[in-house]
Amino acid sequence: MATPTLEKEDAKPEAGFADSPYITVTFRIRRFNPEVSADAVWEDFQMEIDPKERVLDGLHKIKWEQDGTLTFRRSCAHGICGSDAMRINGKNRLACKTLIKDINPSKPITVEPIKGLTVLKDLVVDMDPFFQAYRDVMPFLVTTGNEPTRERLQSAEDRERFDDTTKCILCAACTSSCPVFWNDGQYFGPAAIVNAHRFIFDSRDEAGEQRLEILNDKDGVWRCRTTFNCTDACPRGIEVTKAIQEVKRALITRRF
Amino acid sequence: MKIHKYDTVIVGAGGAGMRAAIEATKRSRTAVLTKLYPTRSHTGAAQGGMAAALANVEEDNWEWHTFDTVKGGDYLVDQDAAEILAKEAIDAVLDLEKMGLPFNRTPDGTIDQRRFGGHTRNHGEAAVRRSCYAADRTGHMILQTLYQNCVKEGVEFFNEFYVLDQLIVEVDGVKKSAGVVAYELATGEIHIFQAKAVIYASGGTGKFFKVTSNAHTLTGDGQAACYRRGLPLEDMEFFQFHPTGIWRMGILLTEGARGEGGILRNKDGERFMEKYAPVMKDLASRDVVSRSIYTEIREGRGCGPEGDHVYLDLTHLPPEQLDAKLPDITEFARTYLGIEPYTDPIPIQPTAHYAMGGIPTNVEGEVLADNTTVVPGLYAAGEVACVSVHGANRLGTNSLLDINVFGKRAGIAAAEYAASHDFVELPENPEELVVSQVERLRDATGAERVAELRKELQETMDANVMVFRTEQTIKTAVEKIAELRERYLNVSIQDKGKRFNTDLLEAIELGNLLDLAEVMAQSALARKESRGGHYREDFPNRDDVNFMRHTMAYREVGDDGTETIRLDYKPVVQTRYQPMERKY
Predict the structure, then answer these.
(1) What's the total number of domains in chain B?
(2) Which of B395, B420, B439, B457 is the most exposed, having the fewest neighbouring CB atoms within 10 Å of its CB?
(3) DSSP labels for B209-247?
(4) Are A120 and B499 inside 8 Å of each other by CB?
(5) A166 to B303: CB separation less than 8 angstroms, yes or no
(6) Per-chain mean pLDDT for chain B
């Protein structure tokens, strides 16, 4: 380990904030406002920006300095709240977790709404069907019998079993990257299955069978074609496809 | 315009709002109005844990927790409220576990606990393991668990509804709550929610600072709505600056990093907290650590070419420990700074984090119209409220606790009130204020831009009322805020539409921030002492003779329409603990 000193910095500029000139970047944004026109159009915006800033910072620069009508959702700005999933250069990402330097700013950066959900205005989509699918899988702990006085016991290993799927922030990046979901909005989609997984594999829960039956439906897990788009899209690094496979396996073996 | 009628209306769907909703929905017809989808709330950004003296890993009890909370708040805490907080903490954590929250576990399978700033064994002897946690995403787990249980209980949400006005009606000389007025983002429609009981749980106001851990949406909407209707705001001068925000960005890096053994170092590699807090060192209370960091920077021991930050050093901790206990914050360092925390220290600076002050309430969550008078039917809980359990400085892990304890209390109290009371008749034209506000902004043609005014506000707040304050700097801020409020009248927006008009909402949010910034600065100017998060270089000592009291700020409108702030004071509730000098 190196103790941080000034000398060290002289030798090696601090990562992330070395002197870097602003660069000129073009954002090519899919615009849609039914109050103005029934058609969606592409619109280009140019700006000077530090490439270490986020795509969200670029969108704010446009909204705050050029065009106040540009509309998108955002809140925490550091990848926790799940508001700003969008399609950036053809890939689902969070605008606040994508640095401009990491997506080839020498070419126009395309920004579109996520696919498979109705676009309401610019980058804002109707999230209600997404949350409905989530609600349909019983995304809550179900237990029977008398409640213990203290906490329920759970071993560290049992806790670890479903750790990955507890990380979900419901941003819809996975579900709206899934070709099956694009073609058939009835499919539960990866995010709902991830949240079912989180409870099916929780040793404290007693409704695994019910959730599995829900997902055994024609619009359930069997629709998954294992394209791994969801895993690639997840900004939290959840192994989404693996979680779906584990649910499929549990359906066959009835062991979980 | 639509009119809705509910027994209980909850404004905000973060931790406090959803905890209240779970209770209120069981007892009354309840609606939750939230400007974001519930899981977007900033509770989800909380990391380190939730304090409760479970004593799962070492000896602990709620009395020690009460003492730490009182001392941490520099004796401005109402001690009866702190005692409730610490006592009910244990059930609050167990409630969450039973709702499904996946806490980290001990080898015995019980909830694991870790150290956190200002939490001590036996009144300050040494750090104690009191924080119940789920890696460094405890807030995320709480938000998800509460939302899951809202789904289970069938809580009714109105998503992307902005509450812009609080309806207060005077009945027989008593100010009562009649409901709220909301703006629906999707359509631009105005909605009146008539309600027997209203609970504010709309969060903080950190966005009036530039470097802040707060979300873009934390603009003090609930505080502003109540304040504009003549209700007081308590202790607004007390704002917490969290020691470890990512340099320049302000993104939070949990105190849990120091709880796990992380160390703060200056440019010489020195563990400087040993000088300022010999016992607790890096785990002294946040106000103490933030001041120490800026003292190092001011005395030329800051890091980087401009010497404007220090380091959070985790490099001596095993990578497995970082992966297991601090996975999110180490990823933030990689994503936003390109730094590998296994091998390199992380540049940090204090970041505006938490409003200790807010809408005054008693321990049942009932909002106060003055020092003692309750506003029937009006409640508040969480960061929007001031009970006061945090006094002049909140301890880490006490906010996730606060939202659960007082969210639950407010939810029960409001629903029980609704069950035994009738609706208060709506005032004539209840939508009037909101309609005029919205139409004025939509029709405005002035030259001022929202983003420019907000930037200037944030810059003056950072420069003048942050960790160190003097009469001169606060006056500079007061004058600048007055100028900005004047220019705000000349603001215009570009989006004139009804559908998802976030341009309009940002303008309204800026108005809220300006009102609250003014209250904060005026309250700070009048408090000629240093206490907790409020540090006056011209009055560096705590003054218990003159200032052991809460500030109560009221908006007054003169006959000619001029607005002024009237400051009054409220006594602190002291029970067990006499004020002592605060050392860590």
Answers:
(1) 2
(2) B420
(3) SSSBSS-TT---HHHHHHHHTT--EE-TT-EEEEEEEET
(4) yes
(5) no
(6) 97
Give the three-class secondary structure for B476: helix
DSSP string, B313-345: E-TTS-HHHHHHH-HHHHHHIIIII---TTTSP
| Fold annotation for A23-125 | Ubiquitin-like (UB roll) (3.10.20)
- pLDDT for residue A13: 43
Residue A1 has its nearest CB partner, among B107, B316, B499, at B316
B437 in a structural domain: yes
* Residue carrying the six token digits 């709620």: B62
Q: How far apart are CA A88 and CA A112, in angstroms?
A: 7
Provide CATH 3.10.20.30 ranges for chain A.
Answer: 23-125
Inter-chain contact B269–A5, Cβ cutoff 8 Å? yes
Mean pLDDT of B466-487: 98
Chain A CB contacts of B41 below 8 Å = 75, 81
Measured distance CA(A34)–CA(B298) in Å, rounded: 54
Q: Write out chain A residues lying below 8 Å of B98, CB-based.
A: 141, 143, 147, 151-152
Q: Minimal Cα–Cα distance from A81 to chain B, Å?
A: 4
Which candidate, B234, B232, B253, B235, places its Cα nearest to that of B243? B253
What is the reported pLDDT for A19? Answer: 58
Buried b (16+ CB within 10 A) or exposed e, B40-50: bbbbbbbbbbb
**Residue of B102, B247, B332 lying closest to A159 (CB–CB):** B102
Is position B582 annotated as part of the catalytic site? Answer: no
- Whether the per-residue pLDDT at A11 is higher than 60: the answer is no
Q: B288 is in which domain, residue-wise?
A: 242-350
- Predicted local distance difference test score (pLDDT) of residue B512: 98
- Interface pTM, i.e. ipTM: 0.96
Instruction: Determine the distance in angstroms separating the CA of B135 from the nearest CA of chain A, rounded to an integer.
Output: 10
pLDDT surpassing 90 at residue A238: yes
Residue spans in chain A of domains classed CATH 1.10.1060.10: 128-143+156-253
Q: Which residues of A touch B265 (CB under 8 A)?
A: 3-4
Task: Look at residue A9 and tell me whether its pLDDT is greater than 70.
Answer: no
pLDDT of residue A185: 77
Q: How far apart are CA B520 and CA A6, in angstroms?
A: 38
The contacts of residue B445 (CB under 8 Å, 6+ apart) are B492
Residues B438 and B566 in one domain: yes
Is residue B365 packed enough to be buried (19+ CB in 10 Å), middle (13-18) or exposed (0-12)? buried
Chain B, nearest residue to A10 by Cα: B305
CATH 3.30.200.20 is held by the domain A128-143+156-253? no
Residue type, A149: T
pLDDT at A20: 56
